Amino acid sequence: MSKTRDLCWLKKKVYQSDISGYHIKDKKDSIVMKTIERELPLLFEGAEASDDPGSSLVLSLAGDVGSDGYEIKKTETGYGITASTENGLLYGVFSLHRILITKGTLPFKSEPDQSIRMINHWDNFDGSIERGYAGESIYYDRNNFRGDMEIVRSYARLLASTGINSISINNVNVHRKETFFIKGENLKEIRKIADVFSEYGIRTYLAINFAAPIVVGGLDTADPLEPEVAAWWENVTADIYKEIPQFGGFIVKADSEGEPGPFTYNRTHEDGANMLARAIKPLGGIIIWRCFVYNCAQDWRDRSLDRARAAYDIFMEHDGKFEDNVILQIKNGPIDFQIREPNSPLFGALKKNKSNTGIPDYPGVHRASDRYLLPGTHVERNFGF
């Protein structure tokens, strides 16, 4: 790891007299397991690989703590971490580091109740970040890929240490150059980024332009009910997975704030999302379809209009009609750029489809730039469904 970069909460090694070696039971030759073995000596002073099952730190793929869960216990010889999956073991390793650094207590058990824990980047190919507040993109620079895999790896380990397992690496407001990320040489560069994230159990997603069949494919339409459009997306997804086998799927912002979508063709969001879902489903992919949809041309002074219920009106009639690999991403509140606002009316209303929560993507705007996010996020996460 570079000495010029801040490794944040992972910079400090644990000096623990009762950790002198580690042993991994039933070790598999996998990319995440290699990461675990690379991380152990970075996090724990004196942690060297051992064939002794009675080592001071023992990692085991056993138990039933969910796909990404883990359990840490104090043992007679030191510490034991058990998990059902390699991702869970990795999270357990980072968690033990945190517990020992902060003088926390054991035993400790974690069973995530959210299978997708994602960061949505709003990075643009020119290197800028929409509503970014901490410098330029770590992926792009002046319409080129930066190619700095060291900083991506440093970032990936920070994310994995907090349990993040998914990431989208470009702005949901997809500009023209980024529309071409799904084809050709761009995919080879994205593969390099995805490979690094996969080392830490993180799947890479791309935000796509719904009009890509026209912009990239040269078709006359992007109508989701046209067979040629569906076939085009099937070919595109096949090419992506051929290049990036661990690819996660697509993020889609459609018919909102000027972005193209199925409304252009008098189709529904059910039509648009399901067409893409059927194209990517055989490859194990997921469509994350944003529900923050409204008519941005509305006159806010017209009190007969209720923008706060726009997403509810659009999506409720389609509840239960989306493919099972579609996740409806509901923004925390129904408006935008609010210091605090009520929860979206879709929360608790959509009962038949998979959905997730979009936590605010801005720390504040205008004069509210020092907004404190935690109280609002607490309310959103504890909303009574």
Question: How many domains?
Answer: 2
| Number of H- or I-type helical stretches | 10
CATH fold description of the largest domain = TIM Barrel
Q: State the end-to-end CA separation.
A: 43 Å
Biggest sheet overview = 7 strands, parallel
What is the ordering of alpha helices and beta strands? EHEEEEHEEEEHEHHEHHEHEHEEH
The average pLDDT score comes to 89
CATH class of the largest domain: Alpha Beta
Describe this protein's structure:
- This protein is of the alpha/beta class and 385 residues long.
- It is built from ten helices and 15 strands.
- The chain has helices at residues 31-43, 86-101, 149-161, 176-179, 184-199, 212-215, 227-243, 269-280, 310-315, 373-381, and strands at residues 21-24, 48-49, 57-61, 70-74, 79-83, 108-110, 118-120, 140-141, 144-145, 166-168, 203-208, 249-252, 286-290, 326-331, 355-358.
- A seven-stranded parallel β-sheet has the order 7-10-11-12-13-14-15. A six-stranded mixed β-sheet has the order 2-1-3-5-4-6, covered by helices on one side.
- α1 (31-43) packs parallel to α2 (86-101) and α3 (149-161) crosses α5.
- The radius of gyration is 22 Å and the shape is globular.
- The model is unreliable at 363-370 (pLDDT under 50).
